Amino acid sequence: MNYDRIKRLISESKRHNQIAFAQAFSGIGEIVKKKREELNLTQESFSTGICSVSYLSKVENNRMNPNTYFVEEMSKKCGVNLQLCSDEYEDSKVLKRAFKAFYQNDLNFLEILKKQALELELTRTYHLCQLCLAVSRRDYKASRHVIGELEQRMSTFDSVMLAVFGTLCVIHAFQTNAYVEAITLHNAMENKKDVDPHVTVLNDVYGFLIKQKLQRKTESIRNYTSAMINLNKYYQTDYLTMLKLYHINFLIGETPKEALKEFDELSPKRISVELINMYQYLKMRLLPDTLLTTESIKMLDDTNKDCWFFRALLLAAPNNIEHIKHFFKHTNEDSLLEKVYFQSLIYEDEQDYKRYLKDICLPLAIEKQEVDYIDLFSKKLITLSCDNARYKEALAIYTKKNKALTKMTAQIEA
To answer: Alpha-carbon distance 173 to 195, whole Å?
Structure first.
């Protein structure tokens, strides 16, 4: 019999149990200290009949893992199940690190934390890590699947889980153009976002973006101001740049000179790969039409065919229909409106063009809740109708547009 091997196996087994025990009761010290302070008791009076003062001090300061007796007796004294509290503490601890990685777009570390959550059997945090990754990668199918699974577990969520889950749902809704759902979720998050600074920042960022999309511009200013302050505090270059680009995009329609001034202040070197198409789109919008040439198109990143890539192509479309036609054969889910808009530009017959706008473009814009496109398509239809003295038809289109916008407002305020 190999006694050395048996001894080694026993030693390894003991070490494994010690690690498992330490993981099981990690965080208990902070919970016990918090409870003691809530009861306004000294360490001496709180430890009486359970352990020594030094033992309690070491546990509270996380210099020692408590034994089973301590956990059981302190649970009675605190009036809570410390084992369950410790599990929730560990969940929150891993989840906060995961959401910070999501905020910093550190997908490699996020993968590591997802694996850690699985090993620690933190099922809810594991699924929330999955959702963080799906939302980061704009994998809409995976996001919808994980959201469906997590909705069934929501009754077991603590405040941190609810805040993270709500924020990810807001971002997913924004990504998939469900703006009414996004703003409803965002409003519901107002009392939950303060549990984590990164949750607060992202709720302000997407609150601004959603409200601007729905043309609730006055309401959005508070979110913009708060987001800019916090983004500078919890520094994140990509979100800072993204927010500035969106702000410029909205300024173009109202104060073009101010938009151009803010655009000139941006450093092209600081524009990340993910934002290059949006940057080029805004650059093309701020340039005279004569400069919208094939050279402008070459500046776009055709490896990242996001909605901004196709919007930039649409700016160049009038002079480059044949040159850019092939790009629109394959578009992403979030670029469907750009595709149908481009398709409308191909029609040479005015009646076919008008019919396509009326039957395809405007209804899709209403379904997608894209206020800018609802305005664009309805204006084109009204202009066509008025040019042909079909004023009743123009009025019907105007009424349809207003009904759609009123319905969206009613859903938001319900």
So the answer is: 22
pLDDT tens-digit readout, 17-44 = 444 444 444 467 777 888 888 888 898 8
Whether 353 shows a pLDDT value over 80: the answer reads yes
Of 151, 111, 104, 100, nearest in space to 134 by CA: 111
Exposed (0-12), middle (13-18) or buried (19+): which is 234, by Cβ within 10 Å?
middle
Pair of tokens at residue 58: 């070491």
Of the two residues 135 and 304, the one the predictor is more confident about is 135
The C-alpha angle 59, 64, 70, rounded to 5 degrees, equals 55
Instruction: Give the whole-angstrom CA distance, residue 256 versus residue 152.
Output: 47
* Helices within 253-359 (DSSP H only): 256-264, 276-286, 294-298, 307-324, 336-346, 350-356
What domains can you pick out in the chain, each with its CATH number?
A: 86-235 (1.25.40.10)
Q: Distance (Å, rounded) from C-alpha 95 to C-alpha 113?
A: 8
Element (H or E) spanning 165, and its range? helix 159-175
| % of the chain at pLDDT higher than 90 | 33
Please check the confidence at residue 66 and state whether its pLDDT lies above 90. Answer: no
Torsion of CA 390, 395, 397, 403, to 10 degrees: -170
Identify the H or E element spanning 205: helix 197-213
- Tell me the C-alpha distance between 350 and 361, whole Å: 15
Q: Mean pLDDT over residues 278-299, rounded?
A: 78
Distance CA 17, CA 33 (A): 26
